[in-house]
């Protein structure tokens, strides 16, 4: 197949995949993928079918060499994600998700591309766990965070019980988890799990600003950095420093065209032209 025909075919397949989405929306702005959780009638709470759909959405993002950063947000102006759809579950709806976990994200440990949460409202339970699974959290001032599962006889087992203590410290996390209390965007910033608080309605715009700053850097360097951080946190500092050059994304960075282009562009006093390979 001719190269131009192949490109058209791939574009058509992307459009077909986009048309199949029922519980989310996907938009691409250059190398940035925007994923919108879209069940506004239930505050973007997720059920089994939504989880499997989002698994495919993030599989596609991870595999797409042209996409460097993803943003996750919620439809409407009230909620990012209210977590598990309890009414669906209470009505006998089957509960479960694919290997990527809640929203295809909370158990996804093999994606080295940055993912940003643009929290535009309520982020409860699984919704907060989605945000915690992202690399950055940008929150509108009306955003609210909580792990309220104990109030309905459940526990935050989609990563919340493990990510929150690692991100803000044990005592602060215990204070949120054991009381199931709600935390404002402002307090989330003070606790350290929110990167920036912006006016209501501006979470996505701010997240795009962060994403664009990230895309000014070599995607190979960004992926190497994220992978080194994630793998390094699981071992001692000494071991992390000793082993980091053997991490796959670090080795890929060193072998890439970008590794040559960066210093060359600097010496020639011009902006680098990243190719991501």
From TrEMBL:
Pfam families xref list: ECH_1
Transmembrane segments: none
Any one GO molecular function term: lyase activity
The keyword ATP-binding appears for this protein: no
InterPro entries on file: ClpP/crotonase-like_dom_sf (IPR029045), Enoyl-CoA_hyd/isom_CS (IPR018376), Enoyl-CoA_hydra/iso (IPR001753), Enoyl-CoA_hydra_C (IPR014748)
Alphabetically ordered keywords of this record: Lyase
UniProt keyword Lyase present: yes
Signal peptide: none
Protein family per UniProt: Belongs to the enoyl-CoA hydratase/isomerase family.
PANTHER family: ENOYL-COA HYDRATASE, MITOCHONDRIAL (PTHR11941:SF54), ENOYL-COA HYDRATASE-RELATED (PTHR11941)
Name the UniProt record assigns to this protein: Enoyl CoA hydratase
Species in which this protein is naturally found: Bradyrhizobium diazoefficiens (strain JCM 10833 / BCRC 13528 / IAM 13628 / NBRC 14792 / USDA 110)
